[in-house]
Amino acid sequence: TQLLEQSPQFLSIQEGENLTVYCNSSSVFSSLQWYRQEPGEGPVLLVTVVTGGEVKKLKRLTFQFGDARKDSSLHITAAQPGDTGLYLCAGAVNTGFQKLVFGTGTRLLVSP
Amino acid sequence: EAQVTQNPRYLITVTGKKLTVTCSQNMNHEYMSWYRQDPGLGLRQIYYSMNVEVTDKGDVPEGYKVSRKEKRNFPLILESPSPNQTSLYFCASSPFWTDFPNTGELFFGEGSRLTVL
Fold first, then answer.
1. Does A68 lie at the interface with B, CB-CB under 8 angstroms?
2. Could you read off the pLDDT of B58-105 as tens digits, one per residue?
3. Quick one: which of A50, A54, B54, B59 is 20 to 30 A from A90 by CA?
4. Which of residues 29-48 of B touch A (CB under 8 A)?
5. For residue B7, what is the DSSP state?
């Protein structure tokens, strides 16, 4: 079973700070997704990265897929209270069809 | 509005009392899946369905059953719930993933919090 470890597990910061969340595995993934989950709701897709080394930006969020496609990072610049939530990475493995393996999650709290 | 609807949202039950969590999607998606979410473990897949009448086990299928008689519905059945099935459950759907390696997006319901006493 593929494992995706996220770090840190918890992060509490002040508005305006920068932060990076890491998603690591010993397995190679064909693509990697990042989801954000707010309290009382299901996860919502933020981005999909496909190519090793790929960088995608979504406003203040920057996502990078590792060159070897085993890891990914999410960097948030000037965090805002609206960024608060649970961030989940999910790697796609080909088991005859595409299967998503989810990471352990990073809970982010941004205080005003 | 395109959505995945789960019911009930909250349920407290006792050991051994059969229960069903319903899931319905209105996006004509072929793929549907059930996950459970536990602190520090992320989302773990219970069962999935590639299409009507096609289901298969995920990573943690023990104690659960599913059926896919219609494209839009994918109920999760706990025949004899036990306390270790206390968890937050999510149903998700996606268009069939034919665009390898660009994995399709998963659309999640709002979750069903189940407590088994």
1. no
2. 999 999 999 999 999 999 999 999 999 999 999 999 886 665 556 678
3. B54
4. 35, 40-45
5. E
